[in-house]
From TrEMBL, chain A:
Sequence intervals crossing the membrane: 12-30, 37-54, 66-84, 91-108, 114-135, 147-164, 170-187, 199-218, 224-244, 256-278
Annotated keywords: Membrane, Transmembrane, Transmembrane helix
Originating species: Rhizobium giardinii
Full protein name: Uncharacterized protein
Top-level taxon: Bacteria
TrEMBL record, chain B:
UniProt cross-references to PANTHER family, sorted A to Z: PROTEIN YCEI
Gene source species: Rhizobium giardinii
Span of domain Lipid/polyisoprenoid-binding YceI-like: 26-190
Signal peptide, first to last residue: 1-24
SMART domains named among the record's database cross-references: YceI (SM00867)
Superkingdom field: Bacteria
Full protein name: Polyisoprenoid-binding protein YceI
Amino acid sequence: MLGFGNSPQEALVASLLAMALVGFFASSLMRWRGLARLTDLLMPAALLAAYWLTYNKVPPFPPVGAVNKAFYVIAVGTAIGFAAEIAAPRAVRLLALLQPVAAAFYVGAPRLGIASWEVALAAVAGMAVMGLVFLRGATGTEGDVKRGGVIAVIALGFAPIALLGASSSSFQLCLMFAAGCFGILVVHSLKPAFRFGGASSIGALGGLIAIADTVVLITRKADLIALAVLALCLVLPAFSAPVCRTCGLSRPFPRLFTHVALAALPAAAALAVAYIYYGSSFPI
Amino acid sequence: MKYRLAAMLLSMTALSGAVSPAWAAKFDIDPVHSGIAFYIDHLGFSKVIGVAQQFSGTFDFDASKPDTSSLDVKVIVASISTNNKQRDDDIQGADWFNATEFPEITFVGKEFKKTADNTGQIVGDLTIAGVTKSTTLDVTFNKEGQNPWTKNHVVGFSATTKVKRSDFGMKAAHGMIGDEVDLVIQVEGSEHQG
């Protein structure tokens, strides 16, 4: 029986359940109250909650070290993204594209001069991720739920890579964030009314990119092959529309399921690559 | 007469070693005969032992005026070992010591107090992962004298302290891994040459 904290595994499972349930209820409440625009804040809020549950702290400001910087990348990104969404909607896309560059250079600042090309590469990779998730695909609420689903899958796929990359905290954080996202999005799986706007892109996706920057640039033990396989999460969902047409799937839920399932395939493959590569030393 | 003089000189030399000559001097920490270890609780079952394999430092010491001492120590974070590669990789990462951004742990002594004949306290600034906290070392003065092998002027101390890792921003795995860390330090300093 689940003891809710009697063991580290139970504590993690309890945290995942709590994140999913809180996400579900917050998302349901907003949907019931017709606060569609505010749903944009749900995913970054889930990431901040996952951060707090993982590290048990709000880092001091100004932040010292990459892990503490990541918190403020999420918080400030959310504020900027949400403000831009209201005051200057046309600027949101540009800001979203600039965020991964700023995050890579901010988090990776200690690597500048030593391995500047790594920081530049992380910035370009982050921009590509942001572009493929946020700037591509259909607009509208269904497209926004699909974007949220892909981010949840990326977080889920990145978790074991972070664990192998010597960051057990990022592993927990990514799992909790993914659980929160699934709780938030399941409310919108049948009849979407979800907004993936400036806060979700710059705060949540941008924050996840900053966490990945921390593992890749600072801890520097990420498996690049597994990361490359995980990147296919961003490519395969492009085939969801033709697959749905071929299979005659026209309702939102099957279309959404197909989209997220296609994203999940490379995430599972990334886990398999990591498992095969590390064999019995895989720490699970 | 010649034999008597030689015996007298020999006995004086031996005596001078035994009474531990003390004078103000600058010492280099001898890493071969010094050690830094830490103990941290694991789920209440045991204390995991970690050691720093690379460190360096200098100190000024005069046994007759210990309050005028100085101390400056650097520990290479990448050299910290807990005898398990997975865990050692983890603690080098951004969640813990963050060796990439903060490759050294430093301790700078600020205040030196004698508390008894051979004990004292050093209050200093301990910097780990970019966070500096005032820390007090409880120090035992072991011995000062000539190393019979190298003939160097040597002084030795033992020190202990407790720190909370959360004070230095390391809050990961709270509840599984203890917050309080016991530090045990053995230092042998050899008088600085040249």
